[in-house]
């Protein structure tokens, strides 16, 4: 399988503190790749380096054979990287459909002037945005909620809406930041089913998650971080049996 995303030697320092040290990671076409580790391991930092919210101190990140670690987040979105952050709330006062449409604006071609003047180019973009949002809502099972206020959704469906918002940009790689956090068992199961459907349709997914059972169900491969370093990499069965992982994260004899 071809690597769609590849990070090599990625290091991030905050002052004299290393959040990440020489991290290597790749996400293959059509796979779900999970990153796990204890609190403070560097998972969120790695996620933000890939999305562009932070810059690496050193190392490279390539997406679809193009170096992207020096690109702004919106330029990475245009290339096909979409993010659903755990702490990114729905936009209150907007409908579910309007929330989903926000994610499509990052990849439109018309600028603000075209929007103000209602130029033909903007009108074409508006049609594309509405179509992409409707498709995303259909994929996430939210079509029946399209005209409802987004804040009326229960938490599980709000999490699905975050995914829909990311999908509206028609990405090749979907980054999910602890999507199961705070969900009840039935909501976690529904979200896991959605992620499985996306993977089945060919979506590449990078998942940062604390819920080990959630990861075991979904991940084709797992990278384990501890204190900013990769300590294990492989299938869930392989990392589950790794002594370093057992000691650092999963529990058991050291």
Approximate helicity band: 25-40%
Query: Low-confidence spans: pLDDT under 50, at least 5 residues?
Result: 111-117
Structural class: alpha/beta
The name of the CATH topology of the domain at 3-80 and 172-250 is Rossmann fold
Specify the overall morphology.
globular
CATH class of the domain at 3-80 and 172-250: Alpha Beta
Overall average pLDDT: 90
Total strands: the figure is 10
Number of helices: 10
Oligomer: single chain
Termini distance? 34 Å
Order of strands in the sheet with most strands: 6-7-8-3-9-10
CATH architecture of the domain at 3-80 and 172-250: 3-Layer(aba) Sandwich
Integer-rounded radius of gyration: 19 Å
Element pattern in H and E: EEEHEEHEHHHHEHEHEEHH
- State the major sheet: 6 strands, mixed
CATH evolutionary superfamily of the domain at 3-80 and 172-250: P-loop containing nucleotide triphosphate hydrolases
């Amino acid at each position: 399988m071809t690597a769609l995303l590849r990070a090599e030697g990625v290091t991030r320092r905050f002052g004299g503190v290393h959040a990440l040290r020489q991290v290597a990671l790749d996400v293959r076409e059509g796979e779900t790749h999970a990153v796990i580790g204890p609190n403070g391991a560097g998972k969120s930092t790695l996620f933000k380096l890939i999305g562009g919210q932070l810059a690496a101190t050193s190392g490279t990140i390539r997406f679809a054979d193009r170096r992207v670690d020096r690109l702004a987040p919106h330029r990475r979105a245009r290339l096909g990287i979409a993010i659903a952050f755990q702490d990114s709330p729905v936009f209150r006062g907007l409908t579910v459909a309007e929330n989903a449409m926000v994610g499509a604006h990052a990849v439109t071609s018309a600028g603000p002037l075209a929007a103000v003047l209602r130029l033909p180019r903007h009108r074409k973009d508006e049609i594309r945005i509405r179509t992409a949002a409707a498709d995303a809502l259909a994929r996430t099972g939210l079509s029946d909620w399209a005209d409802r206020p987004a804040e009326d959704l229960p938490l599980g469906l709000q999490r699905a809406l975050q995914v829909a918002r990311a999908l509206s940009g028609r990405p090749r790689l979907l980054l999910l930041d602890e999507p199961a956090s705070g969900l009840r068992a039935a909501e976690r199961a529904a979200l896991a089913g959605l992620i499985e459907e996306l993977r089945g349709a060919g979506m590449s997914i990078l998942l940062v998650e604390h819920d080990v059972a959630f990861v075991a169900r979904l991940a084709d491969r797992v990278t384990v971080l501890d204190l900013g370093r990769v300590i294990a990499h492989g299938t869930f069965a392989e990392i589950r049996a790794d002594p370093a992982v057992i000691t650092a994260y999963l529990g058991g004899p050291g």
